[in-house]
């Protein structure tokens, strides 16, 4: 397998502070990140880090805006709602999304940056509040229905695929190798993803397919597991995900660089 491109999402505040410094060191860090021209970038705020974000929200939003000017930035995120944490944090997560979109929404839309969403429900203890419903409500205030969305680490059911596509038709579903050990219902969700909406990811180092952590080259193993579930070959899944990622992120690989403005 030959790697033609990869998109790395950075939502760690400490790294962003170092990378976004308006200093020689900050510039060096940004330059070093761009040495490999196959690497493309996305920056956001992880929903589990919202308490820290809120303390420094103005400075962080300014830093994110500055980072979005980097030549290889092709998306915004990950951002989202994670209702697996204490319920006391949920409102702060919603407020963080609203703050980010109020501060940066215009820039995101102008740059045509797809959104990388982290959406997690509290499955073991159902509540009346659903992360999916609440994040859609926020999104609908700031973005048109046709705006491109990547559901990072998608583990939903077939009905979830259908409902997302009904609300946001340009939703793409990013599947990791963790799907190998998922339930039959969630594997049916992988099967339900339209071919032109399927993306692959490793979520390195957090979603191991073998061993105790994952690495970027696990993408081939991820494709193998997804292929087994969708009853097709690893090669076919890799080719499909390659074309979808190229189009979705506007990656300048192959014969022609896709322009996101043509599809938004």
From TrEMBL:
It holds the Pfam family TatD_DNase. A divalent metal cation 2 binds at residues 118, 152. InterPro entries: Metal_Hydrolase (IPR032466), TatD-like (IPR001130). This is Uncharacterized protein. Keywords: Metal-binding. A divalent metal cation 1 binds at residues 78, 203. Belongs to the metallo-dependent hydrolases superfamily. TatD-type hydrolase family. One of its GO terms (molecular function) is hydrolase activity, acting on ester bonds. Gene3D superfamilies: Metal-dependent hydrolases. It comes from the Eukaryota.
């Amino acid at each position: 397998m030959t790697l033609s491109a990869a998109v790395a999402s950075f939502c760690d505040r400490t790294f962003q502070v170092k990378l976004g410094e308006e200093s020689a060191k900050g510039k060096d860090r940004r330059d070093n990140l761009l040495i490999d021209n196959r690497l493309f970038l996305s920056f956001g705020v992880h929903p589990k880090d919202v308490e820290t974000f809120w303390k420094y929200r103005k400075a962080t939003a300014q830093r994110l805006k500055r980072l979005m000017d980097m030549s290889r930035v092709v998306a915004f995120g990950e951002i989202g709602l994670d209702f697996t944490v204490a319920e006391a944090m949920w409102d702060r997560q919603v407020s963080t999304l609203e703050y980010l979109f109020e501060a940066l929404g215009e820039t995101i839309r102008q740059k045509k940056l797809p959104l990388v969403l982290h959406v997690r429900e509290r499955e073991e203890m159902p509540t009346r509040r659903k992360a999916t419903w609440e994040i859609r409500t926020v999104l609908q205030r700031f973005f048109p229905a046709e705006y491109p969305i990547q559901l990072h680490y998608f583990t939903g059911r077939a009905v979830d695929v259908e409902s997302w596509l009904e609300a946001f038709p340009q939703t793409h579903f990013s599947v990791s190798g963790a799907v190998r050990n998922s339930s039959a219902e969630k594997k049916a969700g992988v099967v339900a993803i339209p071919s032109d909406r399927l993306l692959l990811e490793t979520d390195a180092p957090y979603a191991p397919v073998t061993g105790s952590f994952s690495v970027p080259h696990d993408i081939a193993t991820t494709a193998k597991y997804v292929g087994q579930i969708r009853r097709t070959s690893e090669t076919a899944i890799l080719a499909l995900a390659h074309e979808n990622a190229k189009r979705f992120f506007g990656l300048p690989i192959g014969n022609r660089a896709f322009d996101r403005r043509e599809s938004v």
